[in-house]
Design a protein that fits this description.
With 101 residues, the protein is mostly helical. Helices cover 71% and strands 0% of the residues. It is built from five helices and no strands. Helix 1 runs parallel beside helix 5. The model has no long low-confidence stretch (mean pLDDT 91).
Length: 101
């Protein structure tokens, strides 16, 4: 399964989120591009934990499915981290546009 990061989607999320939270501190804006990779790692840990515990929380259709989900989330986190500079620019651009309203 191919996993990729679409910067158009990141820009849309950044714009939408910062429209609802226009008064964020600079340090908070700086941290936003790390939210995606962090959530991917968190989900990977949850899928791995469920896999190791016998697949009781997340429904599966086949053996090893939660392990595959874990691997997919780790790959997604890796791709998002690789696109950090571009994602960070999307959040800073959206924050700058919000301050001009």
């Amino acid at each position: 399964m191919a996993t990729s990061v679409y910067l158009e989607s990141v820009a849309a999320v950044a714009s939408g989120f910062l429209t609802t939270c226009p008064a964020l501190e600079p340090a908070e804006i700086d941290a936003l591009a790390l939210a995606g990779p962090e959530m991917g790692i968190e989900n990977a840990v949850r899928f791995l934990t469920d896999h190791l515990a016998g697949d009781h929380y997340f429904a599966i259709d086949r053996a090893g499915q939660n392990l595959d989900r874990c691997r997919t989330q780790l790959r997604l986190a890796e791709l998002m981290q690789a696109a950090y500079a571009e994602s960070d620019a999307c959040f800073h651009q959206a924050a700058g546009a919000g301050s001009n309203r």
